[in-house]
Amino acid sequence: MQQHSAQLRWEQHTQRPLFALALAFAVAYAVPIVRPDAGRDVVRLCSAVEWVVWAAFALDYAVRLVLAPNRPAFVRTHWLDLGAVLLPMLQPLRLLRLVSTLLLVGQRARMASQIRLTTYVVGAVVGLLMFGSLAVLSVERDSPDGNIRTLGDAVWWSFTTMTTVGYGDHAPTTGLGRMLAVGLMLSGIALLGVVTANIAAWFIARFEKDDVEERRQTEAIRELTEEVRALRGEVAALKGTAVE
Questions:
Q1: CB 147, CB 153: distance < 8 Å
Q2: Domain extents in the chain
Q3: Distance of CA 188 to the CA centre of its chain
Q4: What are the two backbone dihedrals, phi and then psi, of residue 93, each rounded to the nearest 5 degrees?
Q5: What's this model's pTM, rounded to 2 decimal places?
Q6: pLDDT below 70 — which residues of the chain?
Q7: Of 226, 223, 161, whose CA–CA distance to 187 is shortest?
Q8: Which parts of the sequence belong to the Potassium channel domain (predicted)?
């Protein structure tokens, strides 16, 4: 119990700093893509920030693992966190650091009880649009046959891909770009399912609440009717006694 409380305290105290680091990661990831003419020192600084943020999330996972009351169970239930921590070690690609950091931020957001589902969904949509646009722009910009050359093209493509509209005016031509497209489409479908389920659950809860209230009122009316009948019987008995 004490270890479990320590784990919860750690998650509560580190939640905001980790999200601040995630914002720093977003800026560091975006600068070299939006400004391809940035100097070598700027690019190195941004890369260092990305690795520091990933290392912070990896440290967070390690600490939560140490504080967990049942470590094997923690690893089994947080396998996605472990995969995100190990992913950038396989090959030092910026895209792998992007994917792993997004996964880790998403897992920490799910553990935060004060973050409501709507806020999480909105944040996920914005994050996927932003990072999907930046990632596909970095991959497709130098492709000879590519037609995603500007940030505006990338944002438009990400939005139509996530909503599964797919106008076809912009499309990735590289293998990595198409993998990003698949990820965005699956993410968009998943988020749409979450929103639909959330709305359906709200309506069901509302109808159940109305049904409970209606049953309560019906029961109150029935009890009141029984009391009125009893009073009528008592009044009739009193009248009969008075006549005698």
A1: yes
A2: 1-67
A3: 12
A4: -100, 145
A5: 0.57
A6: 1-4, 80, 83-84, 87-121, 123, 210, 239-244
A7: 161
A8: 130-203
What average pLDDT does the structure give for the chain? 76
Q: Compute φ and ψ for 230, nearest 5 degrees.
A: -65, -40
For residue 239, the tally of other CB atoms under 10 A from its CB is 10
The number of residues in the chain equals 244
CA atoms within 13 A on the CB side of 18: 25
Query: In the 3-class helix/strand/coil scheme, how is 77-137 assigned residue by residue?
Result: HCHHHHHHHHHHHHCCCHHHHHHHHHHHHHHHHHHCCCCCHHHHHHHHHHHHHHHHHHHHH
CB 21 within 8 A of CB 104: no
Tell me the C-alpha distance between 152 and 240, whole Å: 92
82 touches 75 (CB < 8 A): yes
pLDDT at position 2, please?
52
The pLDDT, as a whole number, for residue 28 is 83
Looking at residue 113, its pLDDT comes to 47
Give residues with Cβ within 8 angstroms of 150, minimum separation 6: 137
Note the Cα 241 to chain centre separation in Å.
Answer: 75
The percent of residues in the chain predicted with pLDDT above 90, rounded, is 0
Angle between helices 2-34 and 117-140 (to 10 degrees): 40
What whole-number distance in Å separates Cα of residue 241 and Cα of residue 27?
Answer: 92
What are the tokens at 228?
Answer: 């009125």
The token pair that represents 84 in the structure block: 């995100």
| Burial class (CB within 10 angstroms; exposed 0-12, middle 13-18, buried 19+) of 37 | exposed
User: Residues 40-50: pLDDT tens digits?
Assistant: 888 889 888 88
